[in-house]
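Question (not urgent): is this output format expected?
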Amino acid sequence: MTKESRQSLEEVMGIANITNALVVQMAELLKLREAVQEAEEASARKTAVQRHHGIISTACRSCSDPRAS
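Got this back:
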């Protein structure tokens, strides 16, 4: 193997290592993004349920309040 081909091989291996590291980081970022989206969706559901319960509570209170009629 000549010196030039050895250097080319080392460069290719270096590029491959960097590419592999980038792929791993991208996969981690995608997992984090999915986790954030799931957390946001759960938060939105919790808020919707709390609002629903608030509406039901208010309706029940107004139905049982004799001053409401």
